[in-house]
Design brief:
3 domains, Rossmann fold, 16 strands, 35% helix, pyruvate-formate lyase- activating enzyme, 12 helices, 6-stranded parallel sheet, OB fold (Dihydrolipoamide Acetyltransferase, E2P)
């Protein structure tokens, strides 16, 4: 979207106070995300837009796609709604709101998100997970052409981005064949000036030997993999419409670690699914102690309208779902903190992101942005610099370092 509006001659700004139009790109995956998106719109309507006829608020993304005209009737604070399939027309919407003409010869670009930028390799999903709203919202799976990805990645790197993070609802399905993601990893990993390439959201059946070989042999690729497994209990996985299981997942992790010793692994999990028993959730917690993921996101199951899981028998009260998620999260956090503490004494390269409460912070290759903790630095460091540090302490998932 940012590329499309700059191609139309509009200027991007990082501060709403410098903007005539603010675009809120929303998520509607689960109820909590919808509430967060609405809060963001309301905050802007109250603090930024209130009383001004020259400021315009546009809501894009999954909420307009999921709720359509119902959203327009409920959220009067917004001036326009742009669903996912119409995001390419955002510039025309802005032109209509502001009266500013659309240029025909401007150059498309994105404002780099600091040291790191996300690169979306696909949209939509063809899987049939019973709990998931993505196919309802974003439709069938579609890969972004490799040439377009290379051009966008090259532009971002030329603007100072040092890390690219590949994202998509299912990155492992890129180009719909077994060679798609491995070849994309090799191609992007070879871009001049790119220091780090990170791959997120690889489904378990997409972790092929071909992909592992491509990651292991491409020097810019972070030895890091995000593999959402969601659960390990057979009955729960079956009800979720997913494959795998404890033995299969442990074998997979062994194969990944053999291909890239020392790799950092992340997963996501859902607790409180309909029909889940207390034994199932204890089984999941015990599995985490054996699997030893570096990082794990744990979600309370959310029954979403329009999904098959929302009609399943055996639904649990929210308080029980919340308690089970906390049990799983405690198990994941205990392992994660132990893994982090084991890094004390090691030397790592850290990409400097920002200063937190006046303390410079960054991440090493085993930490994805925003979700995996940070490395706290002991001295001043420029954002986008890569510095060598020694880890001297850990605080949960965060690492404390000193300069080498």
């Amino acid at each position: 979207m940012s590329a499309s509006v700059t191609a139309a001659g509009f200027e991007l700004a990082l501060d709403p106070e410098e903007s005539d139009v603010v675009v809120v790109n929303t998520c509607a995956f689960i109820e909590d995300a919808v509430e967060e998106s609405i809060d963001a719109v309301m905050d802007l309507a109250t603090a930024w837009k209130a009383g001004s006829d020259s400021r315009h608020l546009v809501v894009t993304g999954c909420m307009p796609s999921r709720y359509g005209v119902d959203l327009e009737g409920a959220l009067h604070e917004a001036d326009a709604f742009v669903p996912v399939k119409q995001e390419g027309g955002l510039a025309d919407v802005i032109s209509k709101l502001t009266g500013a003409p659309v240029a025909a010869d401007a150059v498309a670009s994105r404002i780099p998100e600091g040291a790191t930028a996300y690169l979306s390799v696909s949209d939509g999903c063809d899987r049939a997970c019973t709990f998931c709203t993505i196919p309802l919202i974003r439709g069938s799976y579609a890969s972004v052409p490799e040439g377009r990805l290379v051009a966008e990645a090259s532009d971002l790197v030329s603007r100072g981005v040092r890390e690219l993070v590949l994202v998509g609802q299912d990155t492992s399905a890129y180009r719909d064949d077994a060679t798609g993601l491995p070849e994309l990893v090799r191609t992007l990993g070879a871009l001049p000036g790119l220091d780090w390439l990170r791959v997120m959201y690889v489904q378990p059946d997409g972790v092929t030997d071909r992909l592992l070989e491509a990651m292991a042999s491409t020097s810019s690729v972070c030895h890091y993999l995000d593999i959402p497994i969601q659960h390990v209990a057979p009955d729960v996985l079956r009800a979720m419409g997913r494959g795998g299981g404890e033995e299969a997942f442990l074998d997979l992790l062994d194969r990944v670690r053999a291909a890239m010793p020392g790799i950092s692994l992340r997963t996501t999990l859902i607790a409180g699914f309909p029909g889940e028993t207390e034994h199932d959730v204890e089984h999941l917690a015990e599995f985490l102690r054996s699997a030893r993921f570096d990082h794990a996101g744990v979600f309370v199951y959310s029954p979403e309208e329009g999904t098959p899981a929302a009609t399943l028998e055996g639904s649990l009260p929210y308080a029980e779902r919340l308690a089970r998620a906390q049990l799983v999260r405690d198990a994941a956090d205990a392992v994660g903190a132990d893994v982090a503490a084991a890094r004390i004494g090691t030397a790592l390269d850290v990409l400097v992101d920002e200063a937190e409460d006046g303390v410079p912070a960054g991440r090493w290759r085993g930490q994805a942005p925003e979700v995996d903790g940070v490395v706290l630095l002991d001295g001043r460091a420029e954002v986008r610099a890569i510095v060598k540090v020694r880890i001297v302490d850990s605080i949960g998932y965060d690492l404390v370092s000193e300069a080498v």
